[in-house]
Amino acid sequence: MLLIVVFVPSLTFTPLLASGMFQLSSQWRSEKAQMDLATKTVGGPAANLFFNLDKERRLTAEVQANPGNTARDKLAKQRAATDQAVNAFRPLAALNPANGQEGLTDAIAGTVNDLGRLGEQRRVVDAGWSSEQKAFDYYSEVLESDLSVLTALSNTDEGQVNSKAQTLVDLYWVVDTIGREDAILARGWETGRLTRDEYGLVADAIGTRKHLMQFRVVPALTGNESPYGKLTAGKAWGTMTALEGRLIASGSGSEGDQVPLRDDSAEWRSAVDTVTAQLRQLLNVRFENVRTIGYDHADMLFTVFISISTVGVLALCLVFFTSWRLTAILRRRILHLRHAAHELQKRLPNVVARLERGEDVNVDAEVRMVQPTPDELGELGQALNMASRSAVLTAVRQAQQHRGFQRMLQRIARRTQILIGLQLKKLDELERQHEDPEVLEGLFDLDHLTARLRRYEENLVILGGGQPQRRWRKPVHLLDVLRAAQGEVQDYRRITTDVEGEPWIAERAVGPLVHVLAELMENATAFSKPPTPVEVRAAPVSRGVAVEIEDRGLGMEPEQYAAANALLQSPPQLDVMTHADDVRLGLYVVARLSASLGLRIELRSSAFGGTRVIVLIPEALVVDRPRTVPEPAATPETEVPQDATDSPPRSQEGSDGPRPPHQDGQLPTRPRGHAPLPQRVRQASLAAELKVPADRDERTDQETWAVRDQPSRSSATIGAFQRQSRRLRAGDDASQPRLSGSPEPVSPTTEERR
Question: Would you put residue 204 in left (φ > 0), alpha (ψ -120 to 50) or beta?
Answer without folding.
Answer: alpha
